[in-house]
Amino acid sequence: MPRALSESGRVELRLRPEDKATLTRAASLKRLDLTGYILGAVLPKAEADIAEAERLTLSERDSLRVLALLENPPAAPDRLVRAAKARFTLP
After folding, report:
1. Is the dihedral of CA 23, 29, 34, 38 positive or negative?
2. Which pLDDT tens digit goes with each residue over 35-73?
3. For the chain, which has fewer Cβ within 10 Å, the N-terminal or C-terminal residue?
């Protein structure tokens, strides 16, 4: 439940007192400050969530189709061949 993110990188979090007490106790048992404890638990999860969102998962059928196209690519359309011969560049 982040409240705000300022230019300094500060994030405010509103917690129930009992939740803060639990986090503070757990942090002290690990000999960490509260920020270090929260970041140690949350950052790996955030990185995993980002990696999962950025990863493309193909079905077996689609994977085989991609491999087949890489091994035997279709012929280039005439327009593409002409553009390549004319050294066409995108703006």
Report:
1. negative
2. 999 999 999 999 999 999 999 889 999 999 999 999 999
3. C
